[in-house]
Amino acid sequence: MLATVLSGGVSGIEGYIVRVEADVGRGLPSFTTVGLGDNAVREGRDRVASAIRNSGLEFPMDRITVNLAPADVRKEGAGFDLPIAVGILAATGQVEAGLLDRVAITGELALDGSTRRVNGVLPVAVAVARAGFRGLLVPAENASEAGAIESLRVYPVGSLASVVRVLAGGPADEVAAPTAERPTLAGADSDLADVRGQDTVKRALEVAAAGGHNLLMVGPPGVGKTMLARRLPGILPELTTGEALVATMIHSVAGLLPSRAGLLTRRPFRAPHHTVSEAALIGGGRIPRPGEISLAHGGVLFLDELPEFRRNALEALRQPLEEGSATITRAMATVAFPCEFMLVASMNPCPCGNLGHPTQPCRCTPAMVRRYLSRVSGPLLDRIDVQAHVAPPTFDELTGRGAGEGSAAVRERVQGARIAQLARSGRTGAATNARIPAGKLARVVSLDDEARSVLRAAVARLGLSARGYHRVLRIARTIADLAGSAEVRFDHVCEAVQHRSQERKVRQGGPVA
Hints:
With about 525 residues, the protein is α/β, with parallel strands linked by helices. The protein folds into two domains: about 1-165, Ribosomal Protein S5, domain 2 (2-Layer Sandwich), CATH 3.30.230.10; about 190-425, P-loop containing nucleotide triphosphate hydrolases (Rossmann fold, 3-Layer(aba) Sandwich). About 40% of the residues lie in helices and about 15% in strands. The protein has a five-stranded parallel sheet with strand order 11-14-17-10-18. A four-stranded mixed sheet has the order 1-2-4-3. A hairpin with a 4-residue loop joins strand 15 and strand 16. Helix 1 crosses helix 2 (about 80-90), helix 6 (about 200-210) packs across helix 19 (about 465-480) and helix 19 (about 465-480) packs across helix 20. The longest helix is centred in the last third of the chain and has 22 residues, at about 405-430. It is elongated. The termini are far apart. Residues about 175-190 have low confidence and may be disordered.
């Protein structure tokens, strides 16, 4: 007897349909799985056999052949346990086959027949919905994740016996309600009002958030660079449903979604240690997996102590920062992971950290400073739009009673600027100013003679590259959006130049101020 069960696999973060074909025929008892399955798929034979027996069902003592089609695509993970078991039961007449051509099944089996959550259920659910199938049977712990796809009926099951009951027309273990409400905002516990002083840097955070610009903070240790970075998600606009869906798919594939979790409700904030490898940062592995830059998609990637990161890891950031995706090529597959994130980095001005400090003397020689700063390449600095100096707060600022402006007020201005950019996106093809192609900047940034002269002087004084020049224009456009101005004026260009003024000092190793 032959039975076919629909299931799904994942390549990168894209799901695809897998047809599990189970043939039970005469011959010596054997259990063979074909179709390019990995070790987890092959080991599933023992889990399936034990689960069927311990569920009070009959495991056939015949020749069993299971094919995972398409046979030329690599399959991985324990999510094929459940469809393989159902295929065997359908081939031996132990389950109703009426629903098998309209629903898909995925899930891992324990030896006692209970189901366990698997990674990558959300991409599979998307693929199943796009293929026009009616529903998806998933472990109960994955039901909220799969329920994010409103057009798909989700059947949560806690055991193999529950699957048999559902396929016979019985009820599922629980009802999975689709996630219809909009995600909540991040940063509720990290408010800008808690930051004393640092008005210049807080303005830089606002500009970066409004235009989706990358940000570098340079300053001595202990002045609040990390504290400021952690408050950036709280002033970003709320996740759209589409952004939340993609971010959740990435975390689902990476196995980082909590049990019974649905769509992500907070913008991701990733802060890898400076010892992170290139593969862990960008993505990779024998079977490609998303790296930190993809896990930060839609949110913030924070690199503290930027010069301490490995040079090859930092240089690998350059292409993803420009393209918004990371393409990983391996012998078995080539996959692209989305990675549209805001890069926020911090660094000391010198090895001891006191260069330019108003009270603490610097113990570093000029050669030591140049060697330290040279760990961050010019091409990478070119890709960091906003560069701010973080000075130590004064005693009066630390002890002042008045609270600063809160994240909610800043977020409202940022949201207004993003709305203006979205309305303009039809002309540029970019949702944020940081993503406007250089060839289309002239359509949205028109400079008068006064602003042009300031920009000409800044290019000569700061030694800006062509990329740096275009980034100043993008920053000026963002500042104009924050001010509610349709035109980029002289004062907007002046502020934009100030946000790039640290670049030459960082490159040449001079004191920052």
